[in-house]
Amino acid sequence: MKGLATASITTSAPAQRSNYDIAVIGAGVFGSWTAHHLRRAGKRVILVDSYGAANSRASSGGESRVIRCAYGLDELYSRFAHRSLSQWKDLGRRVNSTLFHPVGVLHMGARGDKSLAATAGVLAKLGIPHQMISQAELMKRFPQFLLGDVDQAIFEPESGALMARRSVQLLVEEMAQSGLEFVLEPVLPPSAKGRMDIVKTAGGRTISAGAFVFACGPWLPKVFPVELGNRIFPTRQEMFFFGAPAGERRFTLPAMPCWIAPDNLYGLPDLENRGFKIADDDHGPPIDPDSADRLIPKESLAAIRKRLGARFPAMKNAPLVESRVCQYENSANGDFLLDQHPSISNVWLAGGGSGHGFKHGPAVGEYLAGRILGTQTPEPRFSFASKGTVQKRTVY
Ligand SMILES: Cc1cc2nc3c(=O)[nH]c(=O)nc-3n(C[C@H](O)[C@H](O)[C@H](O)COP(=O)(O)OP(=O)(O)OC[C@H]3O[C@@H](n4cnc5c(N)ncnc54)[C@H](O)[C@@H]3O)c2cc1C
């Protein structure tokens, strides 16, 4: 892979003033796809990021992410995921890189869980391929799992795993090759009221634009402390990559799907020989995305190892080969925030990915570009007004 758009990166140019239709601040998955769709609509866009596209501190900086269409009865996100999947595939073709692995996603249900049938109903309505699998069949098809209280599952054969960081970086590189200006500097928190004409960067650059999109993920509460300080909750999340025994092929492609277990544990197959990835989807403690140390404590490792061995006996003694600490940028209930700033009319807020946002990047970008250009009907669930100040998760 080539270096990320090195030719296009601009650092500080004091006193320089540039004019754009739209400035997008934040080159994670939300900001990058928003920039992409705005440019496709013919707009002059500048993209700015403090640390670089899909950097190690960003929520989009992880190795891989699950793309699934099943969202229980929540049709909105099933539609968004399905719409996004085709755009992820298109991106992979355009940049000539394997960004999506169609390994399938297995949603496992505990005994007596009626929600799988409801989920299957939504997938059927939307024409999304899926299979209901009984416990006996699961044991035959996926013998690497110890099922325990799992007695059925939904399998989405056409969903799977996205190479996350690389996808975002290649999308930005693709835009840079067709003239996007990318500025590697932090934008200072704005103080405008009513309307905003410029933002300033820490290095002294002034960027002038007709509209501004702040797609700052877990940094949104820092950029807009008054509006979002108590509406976006960044939480520390740990991810573990374990090494399967040499020659063991059941934990990598094509045998191993992405999977989600009833106890909130989930995982992805060993991709590109980086290890078998496993994590707990429960929210961790609050985190500062700038300054947090990203080391895994021994206690966390011991706890996850126990759960790994209980679900996958062959991985009981597997060594930890890599780990990551990332963060979710949760809204109160898990719905995205994709809306105008409440008091600055030409400022747009994009965030609240809440641990499930990555897959939706293309549809989020399309939606937000449409809102900014006035062609998209607002979805009430993405509004600023709907964002609560007390965490109570309902979207998974
Ligand atoms: C461990 C983990 C596992 C996950 N698993 C999945 C999954 O399997 N499937 C899924 O769909 N989703 C998943 N997610 C969620 C998904 O990754 C996030 O919702 C998504 O990446 C958020 O993207 P974003 O663009 O909003 O934020 P980010 O990727 O954090 O991007 C924000 C960007 O803004 C920049 N920025 C911030 N402030 C400024 C400033 N003042 N000036 C300039 N730049 C600034 C930052 O440098 C950063 O690059 C997971 C998340 C984590 C942490």
N to C succession of SSEs: EEHEEHEEHEHEEHEEEHHEEEEHEEEH
- Specify Rg, calculated over alpha carbons: 21 Å
- Residue-averaged pLDDT: 95
The unique ligands bound to this protein are:
flavin-adenine dinucleotide
Choose one word for the global shape: globular
Q: Which structural class best describes the helix and strand composition?
A: alpha/beta
Summarize the biggest pleated sheet: 8 strands, mixed
| Fraction of residues in H or I helices | 25-40%
User: What are the segments in which pLDDT stays under 50 over at least 5 consecutive residues?
Assistant: 1-7, 11-15
From the N-terminal CA to the C-terminal CA, the straight-line distance is 34 Å
Strand content: 25-35%
Q: Count of helical segments?
A: 9
The counted number of beta strands is: 19
Describe it.
There is one protein chain. The protein has 396 residues and is an alpha/beta fold. It has helices at residues 29-40, 75-95, 115-126, 135-141, 164-177, 220-223, 225-228, 298-311, 361-373; strands at 9-10, 17-25, 45-49, 64-67, 100-101, 105-110, 131-134, 150-156, 160-163, 181-184, 198-200, 206-214, 233-242, 258-260, 265-268, 276-280, 320-330, 337-340, 347-351. Strands 1, 2, 3, 10, 11, 12, 18 and 19 form an eight-stranded mixed sheet that branches. Strands 7-8-6-14-15-16-13-17 form an eight-stranded mixed sheet, with helices on both faces. The chain has a three-stranded antiparallel sheet with strand order 4-9-5. Helix 1 links the parallel strand 2 (17-25) and strand 3. The longest helix is centred in the first third of the chain and has 21 residues, at 75-95. It is globular and about 60 Å long. The two termini are 34 Å apart. Residues 1-7 and 11-15 have low confidence and may be disordered. Flavin-adenine dinucleotide (FAD) binds at residues 25-31, 48-51, 55, 58-60, 62, 65-66, 186-187, 215-219, 223, 237, 239, 279, 326-328, 351, 353, 355-359.
